[in-house]
TrEMBL record:
Positions of the ABC transmembrane type-1 domain: 107-321
Keywords assigned by UniProt, alphabetized: Cell membrane, Membrane, Transmembrane, Transmembrane helix, Transport
Superkingdom per UniProt: Bacteria
Pfam families from the UniProt entry: BPD_transp_1 (PF00528)
Keyword Transmembrane among UniProt keywords: yes
Subcellular location: Cell membrane
Membrane topology (UniProt): Multi-pass membrane protein
Name listed for the protein in its UniProt record: ABC-type dipeptide/oligopeptide/nickel transport system permease component
Keyword field contains Nucleotidyltransferase: no
Record GO biological process: transmembrane transport
Lineage: Bacteria, Bacillati, Actinomycetota, Actinomycetes, Micromonosporales
Family: Belongs to the binding-protein-dependent transport system permease family.
Length: 335
């Protein structure tokens, strides 16, 4: 097990290095083509003097000569940036506030929305997939498959806007009119995030973020369950006289979760992107909204720094998924 973990850690470090270099190169190429982003500090109405532009360029590390040479990968600049990242310095926004402080203020709300969406993934996705497999070719199977196709085809922003207006404005308005503003249900269905009730008002956007991922997980869980229900080891377990519940949980479910864990890892990457839209439209003061507003305000330092943090988070989550493979199936660690 130890050798397996070390091998996966080394692969994760190499992947992280390559991903950060690709992000650096795309950012560098963008600056080389579009010009120094330090101009955004002054706004469209102000033309900075050379001295002012040089000062701001030094502050945001955009003064390197290679940034004026299209196609130059700027290796020296990349290693300087990695050194700053390793020291915990992710730069400052256009108002001179450290990005790490901005992210730290908003991480709790993002963790709340991911806690809700992950719970829905596990309960709705895996649960519905199991029900569809056990009720194959029956009404519930057809109903679940149709629902997953519909929700899987709908863009995340439509899901968020639909829940915002249907659940938050119409249904929530009816609840507030009949139950009062301070009722728990009225608070849950508020059309916008409320800092005074962070957990209650995060439930609906959390569900919105998880809908598409849960649909894919349910379909894959159904397919995996049907495949394992016909496997030799399941028939052997039934022949030994094991109870149906034990066969389902200890044998079929555990082996069926391996491809599902893979999809959950991939869905996490989609959820990071979806969080930007969900938090931005629902006014959740999280990391996603930070990126959402930074893009609208052309605050490039925030976008670059936060995207880098999200890349690191996604790769760490992918490493966790790899380690879960070995927990679910001990044979994997010997491959």
């Amino acid at each position: 097990m130890g050798r397996y973990i070390i091998r996966r850690l080394l692969q994760a470090v190499l992947t992280l290095f390559l991903a950060l270099f690709l992000l650096h190169y795309l950012t560098t190429l963008s600056i080389q083509i579009n010009g120094n982003p330090a101009y955004a500090f002054f706004g469209a109405q102000i033309t900075p003097t050379p001295a002012q532009l040089q000062t701001v360029s030094e502050l945001y590390h955009t003064d390197h000569p290679c940034l004026t040479q299209p196609g130059n990968p700027c290796f020296g600049n990349f290693f300087d940036t990695m050194k700053r990242y390793a020291e915990g310095d992710f730069g400052k926004d256009l108002r001179f506030r450290p990005v790490t402080e901005l992210v730290a203020e908003r991480v709790p709300n993002t963790l709340r929305i991911f806690a809700v969406s992950t719970t829905v993934w596990a309960l709705a996705g895996i649960g519905l997939g199991m029900v569809a497999a056990m009720r194959r070719e029956k009404f519930m199977d057809y109903f679940i498959r149709l629902g997953t196709i519909v929700f899987g085809a709908v863009p995340i922003f439509l899901v968020v806007l639909g829940l915002k207006y249907v659940a938050g404005v119409w249904f929530g308005g009816w609840l507030r009119e009949n139950l009062g503003e301070e009722n728990a249900l009225s608070i849950i269905f508020l059309p916008s995030f409320d800092d005074q009730h962070p957990w209650l008002t995060i439930l609906v956007p959390g569900v919105a973020l998880s809908v598409i991922g849960a649909a894919g997980i349910a379909r894959l869980m159904r397919t995996s369950m049907l495949e394992n229900l016909r496997a030799d080891f399941v028939r052997t377990a039934k022949a030994k006289g094991l109870k149906p519940g034990r066969v389902m949980l200890a044998h079929t479910l555990r082996n069926s979760l391996i491809p599902v864990i893979t999809l959950i890892g991939l869905s996490f990457g989609g959820a990071l992107g979806g969080a930007v839209i969900t938090e931005g439209l629902w006014n959740v003061r999280g990391v996603g909204q930070l990126v959402f507003n930074a893009v609208r305000q052309n605050d490039t330092p925030i976008v670059i720094a936060v995207v880098t943090m999200l890349v690191i988070t996604f790769l760490l989550f992918s490493l966790l998924v790899d380690l879960l493979y070995a927990v679910l199936d001990p044979r994997i660690r010997y491959e």
